[in-house]
Amino acid sequence: MGNDQIGNYIVGEPIAETKAPDGPIETRWERRRFSGKLVNPANKRKMTVIVVGTGLAGASAGATLAELGYHVKSYCYQDSPRRAHSIAAQGGINAAKNYRNDGDSVYRLFYDTVKGGDFRSRESNVYRLAEVSVNIIDQAVAQGVPFAREYGGLLDTRSFGGTQVSRTFYARGQTGQQLLLGAYQALERQIAAGNVEMNARHEMLELIIVDGRARGIVVRDLVTGEITTEFADAVVLASGGYGNVFFLSTNAKGCNVTASWRAHRKGALFANPCYTQIHPTCIPQSGDHQSKLTLMSESLRNDGRVWVPKKAGDKRAPGDIPEDERDYYLERIYPSFGNLVPRDIASRAAKNVCDEGRGVGPGGLGVYLDFADAIKRLGRPAVEAKYGNLFDMYQRITGEDPYEVPMRIYPAVHYTMGGLWVDYDLQSTIPGLFVIGEANFSDHGANRLGASALMQGLADGYFVLPNTINEYLAAGPFPKVDGQHPAAVEARTQVEDRLQRLLSINGDRTVDSFHRELGHIMWEYCGMERTDAGLRKAIELIRGLREEYWRRVKVSGAGEGLNQALERAGRVADFLELAELMCIDALHRTESCGGHFRAESQTPDGEAQRDDENFSYVAAWEFTGAGQPPVLHKEDLNFEYVHPTQRSYK
Ligand SMILES: Cc1cc2nc3c(=O)[nH]c(=O)nc-3n(C[C@H](O)[C@H](O)[C@H](O)COP(=O)(O)OP(=O)(O)OC[C@H]3O[C@@H](n4cnc5c(N)ncnc54)[C@H](O)[C@@H]3O)c2cc1C
């Protein structure tokens, strides 16, 4: 062990075991499944699995595990499992079906994903994801998910960023909702069969570890305020991403890091926390009153053309700017991929033109996404059929009609590639704690390609976890534990003390005002562009804000009964710890890669400059105490198939 040069972390032992198989990549998953232990049906009935989360990852996992014969206890904080944030997903889900015969294949999806993630993901996992993608579509179709179809009856597809094929399956602009209805119905079937015990409006506030294994959780009933301890043979976290650490993001307001952070505090390593996806096509922020930002799906870049005026400070209405005075900058800089460059690249390009004074709309923080050509080429009804609900949404929010004037868009926080570290079996560093969907550090490396989150969440939930968890549960059932066990009493007491502490501060600042300030710090210093000096400053500011939080936060009401201020207070307290780790991670990674752009590390033409020699690893952080230097464990990344090169979309 040694101290690093910035004094904010300690370098620990590298991660030795990822369980990623070797040998030919196309047979790795098959061989892993065959070599893994099975659990016989009679034993499955004796075992319980807790699944925290009912989004696409959690609902698909819960339904599938119950279908296999395990008893499942499912938790979500919404009033219904089908209100999980996954419902917001708009544009589509990738799968290497090659229905278009346009050159797609499992290998190409694998290749695009490794390259799209800027060579910061684990090859074995990404190949498996691409392989399993084709099963997801069959599964969803069998459930009745109404994917868009072509005239001939085949499922329709469109293109998303970072690819030159058309592999994105979609259900208008409501793909997440339709897929979630499919997974939710599968879950409901098992609830009705008595195999899944559904606990809506329950929030997990602590993990219970007994004899080194994850054996349960502490939950708070959000309606009555009752705190209980729940036990199982294994715990699965499917609790989503943490983009709301930035306060403003496209995520649902409730999305938070608490489930993952509580597990992190108990020993689960947190990987690549600084990898944040900033999505290029969001409705620009209109003022300080906002609590949320709205995504305009990436699918719009299939037909919309992105441009700004050539001249800085040009305030003319878009219709008054002639063609030869417009800069279709993505088509100009990246002729091969044009408007369909990956998100990190499109976002940075938008920021650059705005920094040059060529941004449009209030404050100059916007670029146009223009459908005039598409409407001319395809006709308005065709554009309406593809994107109607997105256009309506845009019009309702901005008061402008995108059929008549170009949309205005600007990058916003959208997705977090970081999350709890998991091995090939999706198991964290705590035995018996599995993590799936956006909550794990995932297969997307430093930048996720569009339409790949739904693919990963459903791959994890329907196909990967139900296979890999058997290996762990084959050693079960584990000795019975109840609420009297010292580990359970301790975890429960921790929760009660923390809630009490939050309620008793009775300060003079609202939870939201702290969250908003934290968001400003994160966006300014750990957002689209990061610098050494900025990150150091952010760490100091976050530490100060955290100290102030525990002195001045005001949480009204009581712990008994519904108290949303108390719910938010706990979540923001966790964001205040996570934010520091994100900045430490971003500071230590002195290269640029994907969504992590360090101003000091760029190519002469302003693209992200990786440093493979020093940073070709996953940074997995160990918690050592709030405000204490975390320990860095590196998982080295080896590329046997897709060899790292300077990413080019030109
Ligand atoms: C506006 C928008 C559009 C998107 N469009 C697309 C798209 O077109 N294609 C694509 O691939 N991806 C898209 N994404 C990304 C994708 O939607 C998400 O990454 C994905 O849905 C996450 O699924 P999940 O199951 O991992 O988590 P979520 O859907 O976020 O579900 C999390 C679940 O965990 C529960 N939970 C969390 N914490 C706790 C706790 N402490 N206790 C109890 N329960 C808890 C919640 O109640 C919820 O049920 C989009 C994202 C956004 C924001």
Number of helices: 17
Question: What is the strand tally?
Answer: 24
User: Which descriptor suits the 3D outline?
Assistant: globular
Largest beta-sheet characterization:
6 strands, mixed
**What's the rounded overall pLDDT mean?**
95
Distance between the termini: 43 Å
Structural class estimated from helices and strands: alpha/beta
Largest sheet strand order: 1-2-24-23-13-19
Beta-strand portion reads 15-25%
Q: Note poorly predicted spans.
A: none
Radius of gyration: 24 Å
Bound ligands, named by name, code or SMILES: flavin-adenine dinucleotide
Instruction: Bin the helical content.
Output: 25-40%
Organism: Planosporangium thailandense
Keywords: Flavoprotein, Oxidoreductase
Pfam family, one: Succ_DH_flav_C
InterPro entries: FAD-dep_OxRdtase_2_FAD-bd (IPR003953), FAD/NAD-bd_sf (IPR036188), Fum_R/Succ_DH_flav-like_C_sf (IPR037099), Fum_Rdtase/Succ_DH_flav-like_C (IPR015939), SdhA/FrdA/AprA (IPR030664), Succ_DH/Fum_Rdt_flav_su (IPR011280), Succ_DH/fumarate_Rdtase_cat_sf (IPR027477)
